Structures are given as structure tokens and as C-alpha cells.
């Protein structure tokens, strides 16, 4: 079946197409086959589902380059936390309370919220895989959501009294099994990636290098928390990227997350390698990780994507992250206290939209598949209803501003992923009530589990001491429970 989207104002994010008023988009077999005016005169309308997009702006689906989707079940609990609080409360306590069925409910619910907001592709940095069943249920939630997901197998190990994976070899073996079982096809909405443990959990560099090398053995993109804080023990720079350079592990198949405390030579190395950077402005600014690194990435010509990071802190609205980085970046680059009244601003809305679409796609290794309304690419398409109070009067010379500064879930009438409608007439097409019920049950279970374990507040006491109380072994740094 073909779908013809008629008479939209197309924001293609493709420089060869540009922005086109009154254009049609033809979708066949899940892919965009043409973008231009008057396609309706060239195709058999009887063979098409026709969508009247008059008064709508069409744009590529948003791409979220960093998201721990499993935290959707504990929404908002980190809102007043620092990164120390987060590590102690979420990584060292909450994570261990999740059952496999909680992973399923959280993955499904979190991704559906993203779809409602127009996030058609999510890089899911899944670092709460406590057992094989947790892996299976996480993947099932992703598959049933209808979203495009780059699912990243996290090597992290929450503290558990009886862990199902007792060695790095166990986790490597299950990764290979998972890759063979679920990721043999390159045409699926679900793509495999790998997230090695942060460097402070490594027993030694060889231990960390094994995780990078198994990812490359499987031809999987790599996402890695890098230089997001200083060394938690002595406050010195961590030099995560420097370690990768010395071990020959830095490459273009790598997306480095946060990077707030990176050194000048590391930035040069990232640029030379063609690696990517994912910025999560809201959590970085709140949690005292440091200023978002948009100045450094622009200076060195490094590709950038943006991420939601955690629904335990903020919403799934990627537009807000784009707006926050846009305005923060403008402030950082102009330095208003200098007294100069410059003409214009250093970052345009069009550049910001690029971060959230094609830039994000490139950061996921999918730049040739998604991120722009280009013939041949997957039909991940948004239709923004610009006829109402929120967007009426938008500037035809700057439609990107209309999308980012005035759009929202309420103005987003239609979301298509791979040619299939997942939101239509302003409503998700799935059984949203079922997802809500599952997520509610999981939330209730987790609250009860927290109390059984002495409460969240008690678990957050002296987080650095909990790290310092860990033990090192050939299997990495293990947190005692």
C-alpha cells in the first residue's frame, strides 16, 4: 500500500531538497520514494491512502541519541538530585529492584511517550540488564512499542546479592546469543548497539577493551558515558577518551555521551576519529556535570545529537532539549557580559533541528537511513498541525523555529515510523490504556520494594563511600551489598 501526504510545507533537513511549500510526499513499502509538489498528478490515487496535510508542516521524526528508557517507571524522582545522588539512588539501588516484567512495562511505556512527542528513533542505553530475563523483556517492550530503537546492550552491573551474570564472559556470551536471536536482520526497527561499562568500573584497561572489541566483532554501534564527571575519588580529569586513544579503541562507530570534562587533546582525537557526541542538556545542567559541550563540538566540527537521558528526571519532549541547548549555546557563544550588542545569533533554529534529526541519525550510525525527508530513506515522518492557536502565523522563512519554539505534542497530529502510523489525529494508535496499566503496576511494585529495602532516602546516604567500599577484582569493580 502506498501513502500520499498531500500539500504539506516540507522541512526536509536535506540540503538538496530544502524547504518546500505545498509539497507532496509519496511513501511506498515503508520508504519515502518522492518529495515534490503535484505528485498527486503523477500517481494512481486509488492505489494510495491519501493524507491531506494542508496547513501542516512535515518534518523528519526526532532522533533521541541517549535515553535510559527503563527509568520511565520512576518518573520524576531525580528532579532535585545531583549526579552523586543519581548514581547512589538509581544506579546502586533502584536498578536492583526491577523485575523482568518491570523492564518490559518501562520500555513499552517510555517509548510510547516518546512517540507521542514525535521521537521516532531512540538510542536506548539499556544498562539495567540484571539477568537473561531482563534482556528478553527489555527487547520485547521495544519490539511492541512500534518505535525505531537502537537498543544498546549495557555491560553495567547493579549491585545484586545473587547476580545472574557472574563474569564478564557470561555477559559477553549472552550478548552474542542475543545478537544472533534478535538482530540478524538489518531491516528491522530494532538495531543492536553496545554500551561498555564506565571506566571507573574497569578492573584494568584490558577488561574495558574486551567490551569495545566484542561490539566491533558484532558490527554494533557503541555508546559510552565519557568524561561526564571528574574522577569521583580524587577530582582529577578522568581522560576516558585519552584511554581509548592509547588502546586504539576510538572510532567513527562510537558515540560519546556527555563529555563535559574532556581535555583539549581529547577533543582533537574525537574529531580526527570521526566519532560523535550526544548531549543531554537538562540533566547535565541540573546534576552539576558541567556546561553542555556545544562550543567544543562546533569548534572541532564534531557531529552532535541530543538525548532525553532519563524519564526519572524530565519529560520525553526532545524539542525542549533542543530549545535548551539552542539558547544555552547562544549564550555561551556570545558572552553577553562583554557589553557588545551583536547582530544576530550564532546558532540558528535550523542548526538545532539538525541536531534533533539528521545529526542524531548520524550519531546512531543511521544517517543513510533516517533523519531527513529524502527519497530512499525510511518514512519516519511528523506532521505538525500549524492551524491552531499555538502555531498560527508561523514564519514561512523559518519553519524550523515554528517546530522547535512553538510546536508540542498537542500540535503534532501525525507520527509515522517506517511508513506505519503510530499517532494519528493527535492520538496514539496503540492500546495506550494497557501500557498505562502495566506501568502503574510496575510503579506500585517498585515503591513497595523500596520500602522493603529500607527506603530510597537511606539508600542514598554517603554515595562516594559506597564506591570507596567497593572491591576490585579481575571482573571489575564490584559494589558490595
How would you describe this protein?
This protein is of the alpha/beta class and 481 residues long. The chain has two domains: 2-60 and 371-428, Urease, subunit C, domain 1; 62-363, TIM Barrel, CATH 3.20.20.140. Helices cover 35% and strands 21% of the residues. The protein has 15 helices and 17 strands. It has helices at residues 83-91, 100-116, 132-145, 168-182, 205-217, 240-247, 264-273, 281-286, 294-300, 318-334, 349-363, 399-406, 432-452, 456-459, 463-468, and strands spanning 2-11, 19-28, 31-36, 48-52, 56-60, 62-67, 119-126, 148-154, 190-195, 221-226, 254-258, 276-279, 304-306, 381-385, 412-417, 420-424, 427-428. The strands form two sheets. Strands 1, 2, 3, 4, 5, 14, 15, 16 and 17 form a nine-stranded mixed β-sheet that branches. It has an eight-stranded parallel β-sheet with strand order 6-7-8-9-10-11-12-13. Helix 2 (100-116) crosses helix 13 and helix 11 crosses helix 12 (399-406). The chain is globular, with a radius of gyration of 22 Å. It starts with a strand and ends in a 13-residue tail after the last helix.
Question: Brief overview, please?
Answer:
This protein is an alpha/beta fold and 481 residues long. It is 35% helix and 21% strand.
Amino acid at each position: 500500500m502506498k501513502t500520499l501526504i498531500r500539500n504539506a510545507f516540507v522541512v526536509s533537513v536535506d540540503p538538496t531538497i530544502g524547504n518546500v511549500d505545498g509539497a507532496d510526499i509519496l511513501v511506498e513499502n515503508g520508504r519515502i520514494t518522492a518529495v515534490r509538489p503535484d505528485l498527486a498528478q503523477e500517481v494512481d490515487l486509488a492505489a494510495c491512502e491519501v493524507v491531506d496535510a494542508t496547513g501542516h508542516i512535515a518534518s523528519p521524526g526526532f532522533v533521541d541519541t541517549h535515553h535510559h528508557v527503563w527509568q520511565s517507571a520512576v518518573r520524576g524522582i531525580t528532579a532535585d538530585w545531583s549526579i552523586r545522588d543519581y548514581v547512589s539512588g538509581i544506579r546502586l539501588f533502584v536498578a536492583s529492584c526491577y523485575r523482568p516484567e518491570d523492564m518490559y512495562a518501562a520500555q513499552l511505556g517510555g517509548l510510547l511517550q516518546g512517540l507521542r512527542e514525535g521521537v521516532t528513533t531512540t538510542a536506548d542505553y539499556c544498562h539495567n540488564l540484571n539477568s537473561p530475563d531482563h534482556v528478553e523483556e527489555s527487547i520485547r517492550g521495544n519490539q511492541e512499542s512500534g518505535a525505531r530503537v537502537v537498543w544498546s546492550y549495557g555491560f553495567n552491573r547493579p549491585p545484586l546479592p545473587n547476580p545472574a551474570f557472574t563474569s564478564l564472559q557470561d555477559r559477553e556470551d549472552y550478548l552474542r546469543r542475543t545478537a544472533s536471536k534478535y538482530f540478524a536482520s538489518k531491516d528491522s526497527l530494532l538495531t543492536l548497539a553496545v554500551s561498555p561499562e564506565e571506566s571507573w568500573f574497569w578492573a584494568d584497561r584490558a577488561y574495558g577493551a574486551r567490551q569495545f572489541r566484542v561490539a566491533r566483532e558484532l558490527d554494533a554501534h557503541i555508546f559510552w558515558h565519557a568524561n561526564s564527571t571528574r574522577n569521583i575519588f580524587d577530582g582529577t580529569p578522568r581522560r576516558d577518551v585519552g584511554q581509548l586513544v592509547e588502546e586504539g579503541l576510538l572510532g567513527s562507530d562510537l558515540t560519546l555521551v556527555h563529555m563535559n570534562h574532556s581535555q583539549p587533546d581529547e577533543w582533537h582525537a574525537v574529531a580526527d576519529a570521526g566519532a560523535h557526541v550526544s548531549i543531554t542538556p537538562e540533566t547535565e545542567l541540573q546534576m552539576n556535570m558541567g556546561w553542555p559541550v556545544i562550543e567544543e563540538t562546533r569548534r572541532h566540527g564534531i557531529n552532535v545529537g541530543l538525548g532525553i537521558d532519563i524519564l526519572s528526571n524530565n519529560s520525553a519532549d526532545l524539542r525542549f532539549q533542543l530549545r535548551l541547548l539552542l539558547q544555552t549555546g547562544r549564550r555561551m557563544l556570545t558572552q553577553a557580559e562583554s557589553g557588545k550588542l551583536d547582530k544576530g545569533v550564532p546558532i540558528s533554529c535550523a542548526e538545532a533541528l539538525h541536531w534533533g534529526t539528521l545529526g542524531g541519525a548520524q550519531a546512531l550510525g543511521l544517517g543513510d537511513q533516517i533523519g531527513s525527508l529524502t527519497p530512499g530513506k525510511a518514512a519516519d515522518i511528523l506532521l505538525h498541525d500549524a492551524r491552531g492557536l499555538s502555531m498560527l502565523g508561523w514564519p514561512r522563512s523559518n519553519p524550523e523555529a515554528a517546530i522547535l519554539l512553538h510546536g508540542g505534542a498537542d500540535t503534532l497530529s501525525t507520527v509515522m515510523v517506517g511508513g506505519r502510523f503510530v499517532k494519528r489525529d493527535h492520538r496514539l494508535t496503540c492500546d495506550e490504556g494497557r501500557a498505562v496499566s502495566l506501568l502503574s503496576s510496575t510503579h506500585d511494585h517498585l515503591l513497595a520494594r523500596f520500602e522493603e529495602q529500607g527506603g530510597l532516602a537511606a539508600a542514598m546516604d554517603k554515595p562516594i563511600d559506597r564506591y570507596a567500599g567497593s572491591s576490585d577484582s579481575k571482573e571489575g569493580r564490584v559494589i558490595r551489598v
